[in-house]
Give the backbone structure.
Amino acid sequence: MRELLKDERRTFTQVEMKFFTMWWERQTEQTREDVRKLVKERRLVFVNAGWAMMDEACTHHDDMMNNMMIGHEFLRKEFDFVPSIGWHVDPFGHSAATPRLMADMGFEAWFFARIDYEDQERRMKNKEMQWVWKPMHDALGDQVEILTTTFQDMYWYPQPFDNDVREEINDNVIADERLTTFNAKSRVSDLRDYALHMQQHYRGNHMFIPWGEDFAYTNAFNNFKSTDALIDYFNDTYDDMTVLYSNPYKLVEAWKD
């Protein structure tokens, strides 16, 4: 929260309410007011917002709905925030029941990460990493549908941009050319190459690169400082592509345009 408050460009996306509420209950009222400010400004957003990302393989429908209801009730009470984007980046496998539930809840988009390798290869080849899923189409036809996106490299930072201090290899972006550790020129070149590679698999001019992973941002100062340097140097170097902090809501809005 402290790092988000330092710079209005920065954003953060929170998913599971179990972890967030454990943190929330221990905060001072001043911190809670700061969080409410960030939520109101949409610099802190919530996606999915169930108590957790539920297992799709063996969970009963009642459990799936209760899981989502508990998390959403908390957000409505504390922030008057109603999520409209689903986010299942870590469940192993995806059933048609989940996009059906997301669509029935009023969600306009759903993101997931784990996908069969043969299905992914075909989708990447044909630029079908985004599609409109019509779950249970034989029974429901076009009554239920949801915009769906899957990631080409799971849900974590692309290599070599893992800026979290918990990793054994941590190579921050250094943009000061006076230092012997200066590396921004090569790092922005790496990011541009990654974006151009990604562009071969996705439609449109707006691409979404996940920037985190399990237990990341244990040192938010380090993460944001390095990412700030990467964004600034990239945008100063290239004029045909722009990098910025974003979130799934901004991406969906950009796709609509």
Observations:
- The first strand starts at residue 12 and ends at 14.
- The chain is about 40% helix and 10% strand.
- Residues 156-257 form one domain.
- The beta strands are 12-14, 44-46, 85-88, 109-112, 130-133, 146-150, 152-155.
